[in-house]
Design a protein that fits this description.
The chain is of the alpha/beta class and 375 residues long. The protein has 3 domains: 9-191, 3-Layer(aba) Sandwich (Rossmann fold); 216-277, Adenine nucleotide alpha hydrolases-like domains (SH3 type barrels, Roll), CATH 2.30.30; 281-371, Beta Barrel (Elongation Factor Tu (Ef-tu), domain 3), CATH 2.40.30.10. The chain has helices at residues 18-29, 52-66, 76-92, 99-118, 152-155, 160-164, 175-184, 206-211, 370-374; strands spanning 9-13, 33-40, 70-74, 121-125, 130-135, 138-143, 166-167, 219-223, 228-232, 259-265, 270-275, 283-294, 304-309, 317-323, 330-339, 346-351, 354-364.
C-alpha cells in the first residue's frame, strides 16, 4: 500500500464495483478504522443511462458486509462545473477530451477528499490500480502492478496534497487476484462486470447524447485533396484515427483500402479522411501541449528525457520534453513517429514505474492536408 496510516479514519470511495470493495476489505483486515462513501456525480436522465442507483445499492451491501459506516455524497453540481462544461467546450472546439482525468483531479481527489476530511477522515482510499510511495519527503505516483489495469495515466494530474492523503490498496494486485479475494470473502460484486466509458453517458448512444448539448449537423467528408466522398452526421462525433461510422462506399479509383479520419475542421464542418491505417497524415514526431501538471508540484524548467503515453494502454515511447514557457506549455519530441496523436487528449510522462505528470495535447507536426493549404 506504500503509505503509513495511523489510527485516524480512512474514507473509502465505494463505487459499487469489485475494485473499491476489495480496497475496503483489505483496509478492514488491517484493523484500520474505515468508512465508505458513495459519490453521485451525475443526475440521471429519465432513461436511466447511468446506473448510479444500482451501484449505490451494491456499495451499501459491501459496507454492510464489512460492518462499516456508509455515507453518500452528491457532487453533481461540482461535476457539471468542473468537468462536464469543459467536456462540452472541448468537443465544440473540435478536440477529443478525456473527462476521466479531470474527474479524478476535481472530484475524486478534491471534492471527495475535502468532504471526507469534513467527516473526520485523515486519508481516503479508492480502488484505482496505482501505487503511492514517499521518498525523500516527496510523494510519488507509481504504476499499478497489473500492467493491463494500471490507471496512473488517469491520475497523473494529482498533486502532493492528494497523493499524501490517498491509499490505493489494490495497486499491488492483479485484477484476477482482486476478484478472487472478493469471491473468497463472499462479496456479491466479485463477478460484477467492470464499468466502461463515462458514467454520464452510460449505456446510451454517444452520438445521441452529445447531440443533446451541441448543435451538430451533417457535413462533407473529403479526402486530403479536398475531393468530396460522403456526408458525415456531425463532425463532433469523430476522432483522429477513427475508421468506424464513416459509411464511405465504393469510390472510383479507390483500391478498397479502409478510410480513416485524419483531420476535422469545425469552422467549415468538414471531416477529412485518408486511406490506410498507416496514412502519413496520422503520424507525427512532435506535439505541443499546455496546462502541464507535475506530481511533484514543481514545474519543469529544463529538458527531460523520459517515456510517454498519448493514450491509455499505449506502450510507453521514448521522448524528450522541453518547457516552452512558465505557463505549462511543452514541446514533446518522440524517438519514433506516433499514430493518431489527438488534440484534447493527454500526454503523460514516466520514468520507469513513476508517473511524473502530464499535459493536454494542443497540436502535432503531422502533415496538413492539401485542402487546408488551399483554404
Amino acid at each position: 500500500m506504500s503509505a503509513e496510516v495511523g489510527q485516524g479514519l480512512v474514507m473509502v470511495g465505494v463505487s459499487g464495483g469489485v475494485d473499491s470493495a476489495v480496497a475496503a476489505l483489505l483496509l478492514h483486515r488491517q484493523g484500520l478504522r474505515i468508512a465508505g462513501l458513495f459519490m453521485k456525480n451525475w443526475e440521471e436522465a429519465d432513461d436511466g443511462g447511468c446506473r448510479a442507483e444500482d451501484d449505490r445499492k451494491d456499495a451499501l451491501k459491501v459496507c454492510a458486509a464489512l460492518n462499516i459506516p456508509f455515507h453518500h455524497a452528491n457532487f453533481a453540481r461540482e461535476y457539471w462545473a468542473g468537468v462536464f462544461e469543459h467536456f462540452l467546450a472541448e468537443y465544440a472546439a473540435g478536440r477529443t477530451p478525456n473527462p476521466d482525468i479531470l474527474c479524478n483531479r476535481e472530484i475524486k481527489f478534491r471534492s471527495f477528499l475535502d468532504h471526507a476530511k469534513a467527516l473526520g477522515a485523515d486519508k481516503i482510499a479508492t480502488g484505482h490500480y496505482a501505487r503511492v510511495a514517499e521518498r525523500d519527503g516527496l510523494w510519488r505516483l507509481l504504476r499499478g502492478r497489473d500492467e493491463r489495469k494500471d490507471q496512473s495515466y488517469f491520475l497523473h494530474a494529482l498533486g502532493q496534497e492528494a497523493l499524501a492523503s490517498t491509499l490505493f490498496p489494490v495497486g499491488e494486485l492483479e485484477k484476477s487476484e482482486v476478484r478472487a479475494v472478493a469471491e473468497r470473502a463472499g462479496l456479491g460484486v466479485h463477478d460484477k462486470k467492470d464499468s466502461t466509458g463515462i458514467c454520464f453517458i452510460g449505456e446510451r448512444d454517444f452520438r445521441e447524447f452529445l447531440a443533446g448539448y451541441l448543435p451538430v449537423k451533417p457535413g462533407p467528408i473529403v479526402d486530403t485533396r479536398g475531393r468530396g466522398l460522403a456526408e458525415h452526421s456531425g463532425v463532433f462525433f469523430y476522432t483522429l484515427g477513427q475508421r468506424e461510422g464513416l459509411n464511405i462506399g465504393g469510390i472510383r479509383g479507390s483500391d478498397g483500402t479502409p478510410w480513416y479520419v485524419v483531420d476535422k475542421d469545425v469552422a467549415s464542418n468538414t471531416l477529412i479522411v485518408d486511406q490506410g491505417h498507416d496514412s502519413p497524415f496520422l503520424h507525427s514526431t512532435e506535439l505541443n501541449a499546455s496546462a502541464a501538471t507535475w506530481t511533484s508540484g514543481v514545474a519543469l524548467n529544463s529538458e527531460l528525457r523520459c517515456t510517454a503515453k498519448t493514450r491509455y494502454r499505449q506502450t510507453d515511447v521514448h521522448c524528450i520534453v522541453r518547457p516552452l514557457n512558465e505557463d505549462g506549455a511543452l514541446q514533446v519530441q518522440f524517438d519514433q513517429p506516433q499514430r493518431a496523436v489527438t488534440p484534447g487528449q493527454s500526454v503523460v510522462f514516466y520514468l520507469d514505474d513513476e508517473c511524473l505528470g502530464g499535459a493536454v495535447i494542443d497540436s502535432t507536426n503531422a502533415p496538413i492536408a492539401q485542402w487546408r493549404h488551399a483554404a
